[in-house]
Amino acid sequence: MNESKDFLRTIVEEDVKSGKYQEVVTRFPPEPNGFPHIGHAKSICINFGIASDYHGHCNLRMDDTNPTKEDTKYVEALKDAVEWLGFDWGDNVYFTSDYFPKLYDYAVTLIKMGKAYVDSINEQEMREYRGTVTEAGKRSKYAQRSIEENLDLFERMKNGEFKDGEHVLRAKIDMSAANMKMRDPLLYRIRHAHHFRAGNEWSIYPMYDFAHCLSDYIEGISHSICTLEFENNRDIYNWVLDTLGLTAPRPYQHEFARLGINYTVMSKRKLLELVEGGQVSGWDDPRMPTIAGYKRRGYTPESILNFCDQIGIAKANSMVDVAQLEFCIRDDLNKKVPRVLCVIDPLKVTIENYEGHEKIDAPYYPHDVPKEGSRKLPFSKKIYIERDDFMEKPPKDYYRLTPEQPVRLKHAYIITCKEVIKDANGNIVEIKAEYHPDSKSGADTSGIKVKSAIQWVSAAEAKEVEIRLYDRLFKDEAPEGIEDINPDSLQVIKNALIEPAVITEKPDERFQFERHGYFYADPIDYTDEKPVFNKIVGLKDSWAKKKKTAQSTPKPQVKKVHVDGEVAPMNEAQQKLFDKYTNEFGLNSEVANTLSRDEHLSSFYEEAHTVLNSPINLANIVTNEVARELKQMQTDELKFSAKQIAELIKMVDDGTISNKIAKQVFEEMAKSGENPAQIVEAKGLVQISDPAKISPIIDEIIAKNPDNVAKFKAGNTKLLGFFVGQVLKTTGGKANPKVVNELVAQKLTS
Ligand code: ATP
Ligand code: MG
Asked: Taking the CA of residue 330 as centre, how many other CA atoms within 13 Å lie in the half-sphere pointing to its CB?
């Protein structure tokens, strides 16, 4: 169990202690109208996780009240996902549709109590009568119908005597309730549609607000955990159960924040569009954020569980960086999978002074991984290396093979380039090389210095494989849909070459292809004749770099090529730092990982920390902004000092400037080396928090946008963000967002 309890577990624990419930019973209640995504994984982890922590159980319930969109294939996908994540729903899966007869009876009871009525106004009137956030609604004249008439009409609705939309059943609550959801909510609607389980038996279907609370009650659920968008539905939940006088113990609803991830769309509707539009190969396309997609791509259940654990449970919606999920899978596979040699873009090398053939014993795992196993790597005169591991005219920091610079063949010998063979167009087609017999890995007495070791395969024994290189499906950080698709999200390489043991011995299904990343034998298309591997994730976060170079003005990039490019295990000192950062400083493991592995970054960070005790904010700027600068230059070339960074963050911490402005100040400081306080002063960037200054700006924006004000008042509360955004824009990002939010909300609702 988590050491620090989240707010949901705190509630559950209190309820257990007070004896409110005999047993903790939760449920995961998806609608079977699409494949579950990573957001559902979070909900699964919460519901099944809490049940298991408190020795209760969790039901898997299909919330199948909308006949037109649901299907058995989605039920199967949901079961697969829960099972794959390692959770157990017990003997049977529950279906809301199984409760249709009971729900009908509850509705009849409400009618008999005078608490529900059949309404027959049209949709347009219904909308008008609802009122707005600022005005009460009014009740339809049909609310006067007698109990007998309501009973009769409701039964006939059930029997299919009316057309879709002709009547609805509504709860009789309060048309002037401040919570608009309580203004006589719909309980049933007419739908002449075939239901994938109930067939054509029903012509009416219960609404979520009616079906959900009662299904929870019928199943003896104690804690009904859902996402924040249902916060306002909680009143209906309670009203239905209380009005029906259902005996205790009854369930209560608790809300948590939905998971959102950048570079991802997370709604079954949008995912369905991608599937139907053919933008992806199906719900399980390895680029999809569906659980089936992650599974096919090669993610492990452990990595997803870890991710859900790391992001925690919050009460406020937020966006999680997809890099964090990628970190989790990398972190999991780093310690688990065999490391093998694969050449994706082969360049022929002939080793002129090597005759014969040998088999080199090579371990699958590095020393610090507690796993054993090795294979024989065939070595011969004709081998292939990666095309970009050779350069004729290399830049300064190029560490691999060049006409002047020898390189080690991983696990084998050092080779030196003797001749470069080109075709008529000047393309390099072959390298003639020499090997150094006394340089064999593990028994090297040659004294030759090399800067890196590269992958290779023996030409005669290598196997041809198909490699599917996947990248993020969307190029936009907050994608809307199809128009934001990354055109390079899939690249298929037909003729990559891999060392033979991977195919013949099959030591695992997942591998680290040295220096390339982690790969998974595609569970559907792989055959021994035509092996197919999916790229799960690269060895490091290449996207962060890509994004930053794309944003900053094109500076001449001096690429620092690191030896091997693999994720090395931490040494003792790094591990110690990592532990301190995560345990004492409260940094998340990704940030801690970046810092502790990089000596320059961590010493810079430590120095800033001696000036200002703000570990998290300092870590963020050091691992992002400072790290970006350090990619271009050495620490002593930086224009700014650790002390200045501390001063900058201090201004953020004490509210002098906003986070956004801090980035702007940083850019300036990185260029000029001027003190942050001076920059803020000179450019007038001090954050505006005084309501008296912000108020007139808001008033002006409200005056300029009467249409949006009207829409907001009519219930489109999303427009709050529009107004806040306008204020921030007008002030060049200087207005304090928290103050703006409060003031805008106040003004729009008053
Ligand atoms: P979508 O909008 O993607 O279709 P949904 O909320 O309609 O999702 P349901 O099938 O009704 O999907 O959801 C089943 C459960 O999963 C619900 O309890 C819901 O709150 C939860 N859930 C759905 N999306 C997320 C998410 N992004 N983060 C956390 N929980 C989620
Ligand atoms: Mg939904």
From this structure: 21
Q: Measured in angstroms, how far is the CA atom of residue 675 from the centroid of ligand 2?
A: 51
Question: Can you tell me the distance from the alpha carbon of 5 to that of 53, in angstroms, rounded to the nearest whole number?
Answer: 11
Cα 516-521-523 angle, rounded to 5 deg: 145
Distance in angstroms (rounded) separating the CA atoms of residues 610 and 605: 9
Identify the segments of the chain with pLDDT beneath 50: 1-2, 551-566
Q: Tens digits of per-residue pLDDT, 546-568?
A: 555 554 433 333 333 333 334 56
Residue-wise pLDDT for 126-135, tens only, equals 999 999 988 9
Residue whose CA is closest, atom 10 of ligand 1? 30
Q: Are 44 and 85 in contact (CB under 8 A)?
A: yes
8-state DSSP, 229: G
Identity of the residue numbered 678: Q
Catalytic, 31? Answer: yes
CA 32 to ligand 2 centroid distance, Å:
9
From the CA of 271, give the closest atom in ligand 1: 3
Is 258 one of the annotated active-site residues of the chain?
yes
Separation of alpha carbons 676 and 683, rounded Å: 11
Domains of the chain and CATH, by start: 7-98+215-311 (3.40.50.620), 116-207 (3.90.800.10), 342-454 (2.40.240.10), 464-494+503-550 (2.40.240.10), 572-628+641-668 (no CATH), 691-749 (1.10.10.410)
